[in-house]
Amino acid sequence: MKDQVYHEYKGEDNCPWSLVQMKAAFKTYMRSKRASEKRSRNDQNSAHVILCRRQNRKREKLGRRLKSLDSKTWNAAKKAEVADVMRVDYMSSEESDLEDGSPVYLVKPLVWESSDLKKRKRSLDKHHRESLPSLVRRRVIRRKEGPPSLRNKPASCPEWACQQ
Questions:
Q1: Residues linked to residue 104 through DSSP beta bridges, in sequence order
Q2: 3-state secondary structure of 143
Q3: Which residue from 2, 14, 117, 155 has the highest number of Cβ atoms inside 10 Å of its Cβ?
Q4: From the DSSP assignment, how many helices (H) and strands (E) are in the chain?
């Protein structure tokens, strides 16, 4: 395999990856290929796709909120306090659904989340929406509240962010 890569880049010196990097990439590729085949055999591929999409939506939501947090005019102490809880385990899940033929996300609210944290998250989400061009804003998929999340609160949840 390495010879083929070196040939593709016209020599080992021109190749952007070391042998160690290529071995690690190949190992990762083979591991994911095996896992994919196992999911196909067990008929779990569609469940895996749904899980990956849900996790990706959480990561995207986190990224949007962090970007909004950077550009907010809050004082440094408040920004630091909010940044402390801007992690994936503090993000609510969103499930795809259809309503009247239109796609919609059902947001599963976190039952342990304090009203203060909800308010700050809403502020970050609003800040993000307002930063979008109007054309993009119109194309954003609508969200509505769904059933509550069954996830427990994070172990190190600050008092202000979690209901006791």
A1: 97, 142
A2: strand
A3: 117
A4: 6, 3
